[in-house]
Amino acid sequence: MSGINKEDGNKESDAVRELLDVTREMANGNYSRAIESDLYGELGELARYINMTFKKLQTLEPNIKLSSEKIPLAASQLSDITRATEEATNRIMELTEKVLDNHDLISSGIERVKCSNRLDKSNIGELDKLVSNNKESLIEIITCLSFQDLTGQKINKIMEMMREVESRILELIVTFGLKANSEKGNMDEVTSPILNELKKPVSDDLKQDLVDDMLKKFGF
Amino acid sequence: MPDLKMKILVVDDFSTMRRIVRNILKQLGYSNIEEAEDGDVALTRLKLDRYGLVISDWNMPNMTGIELLKNIRSDSALKDIPVLMVTAEAKQENVIVAIQSGVNNYIVKPFTAEVLKEKIDKIFDKV
C-alpha cells in the first residue's frame, strides 16, 4: 500500500511542473510570476525561496533600466560641458591675445609720444582707439565668463542623476545582500571603493607649495 | 639663464591648455614654441628636431606624459632634454613617480605665469 494516494500524487506532479515552469521563466528574465501551488516539506521550502528570489529580481529591472538611461544622459551632458568650456575658453583667449597685442602697441605709442618734442594728435588718436578696443574686448571677456553658470547648472543635473543611480545601486546591493560572490571576489570589495569615491566631497590633491616641499626633499 | 630662443615643445591633449601655456611663454619672452597633442606625436617631433625644453601634461591618449618622459630618458639622443610636467595629477605618488622617471620639475594645475617662470628658471639654473 502506498502512503501517497493518486490524487495527492497528481497534485504533487502539477506543483513540481509549476516549479519547473516558473524557474524556466526566471532563467529567461521573466520575474513577474510567482509559484502559487501549496507545497510542503522540501519542495515547499524550495518554492518559498524561489518566490523570495522573484521578489528581489523584480527590483532589478527598474533599477537597471533607470541606471542605463541616466548614465548615457550624464555622459552626454559632460560632453556638452567640455564643448562649452572649450568654446568659451578659446573666445576668451582670442580676446585676451587681442588686448595683449594692443597693449604692446599702446606701449610703443606712448614711447613715441615721450620721445617726440610735441604732442602728435594722430598718435594720441591711435592710442585712444586701441584703449577703446581693449575696453570692448574686456567687456566681452566678462560676458563670455557666463559659461560657468551654464556648465555649473549642467554639473548640478549630473550630480542629481548620479545620486539617483547611487541610491538604486545601493538598493540592489541591499536587496541581494552583501554576501554574494562574483568572479572578482566579494561584492563588498567591489562596491565599497566605488561608493566611497562617490561620497568623497573634497579633493585630497596637493597644492603647488606642498609639491615644492616634496621636490626640495629630492634636491630640486 | 634659459635661452629665450630655444625651441620648446608644449604637450597637452587640450588645445586650450596648449594655447594658455604658449601665451604665457610668449609673455615670458619665449617665441619658438611648438605643440603636440599627445606623447606619441611629441616623441616623433622630438626625434625630428632639436628641442631645448619639453612642457608636458600627464593624462593624454596614445602616450601619457609619464610614458613620454620615460621614452625621452631612455633615448640616447633625447635623454638630456629637460622635461617640465604641468599637470592636474597632484597626488603624492604622482610626484614621486615623475621624479623617479627623471622629471626636471613639476607644476600642478591651475598655475600662474610666475610659477611657470620660476620652474623654468630653476631647471636651467641646474642644467
Please describe what this structure looks like.
The complex is a heterodimer of chains A (220) and B (127). Chain A contains 6 helices and 2 strands; from the N terminus they run H-H-H-H-E-E-H-H. Chain A is mostly helical. In chain A, helix 1 packs parallel to helix 2 and helix 2 runs antiparallel to helix 3 (121-144). The relative contact order of chain A is 0.07. The model of chain A is unreliable at 179-184 (pLDDT under 50). Chain B is an alpha/beta fold and 127 residues long. Chain B is built from 5 helices and 5 strands. Chain B has helices at residues 15-27, 39-48, 65-74, 92-101, 113-126, and strands at 8-11, 33-36, 53-56, 83-87, 105-108. A 5-stranded parallel β-sheet of chain B has the order 2-1-3-4-5, sandwiched between helices. The chains are: A mainly alpha (220), B alpha/beta (127). The interface between A and B is medium-sized, with 18 and 22 residues.
Find the biggest chain interface: A-B, 18 and 22 residues
Inertia-based shape of chain A: rod-shaped
Main beta-sheet annotation of chain A:
2 strands, antiparallel
Mean pLDDT of chain A: 78
| Largest sheet data of chain B | 5 strands, parallel
Sketch the topology of chain B as an H/E string, one letter per element. EHEHEHEHEH
Strand order of the largest sheet of chain B: 2-1-3-4-5
Structural classification of chain A: mainly alpha
Strand content of chain A: under 5%
What is the count of helical runs of chain B? 5
SSE string of chain A, helix = H, strand = E?
HHHHEEHH
Distance between the termini of chain A: 96 Å
- Please provide the count of β strands of chain A: 2
| Rg value of chain B | 13 Å
In which range does the helix fraction of chain A lie?
over 70%
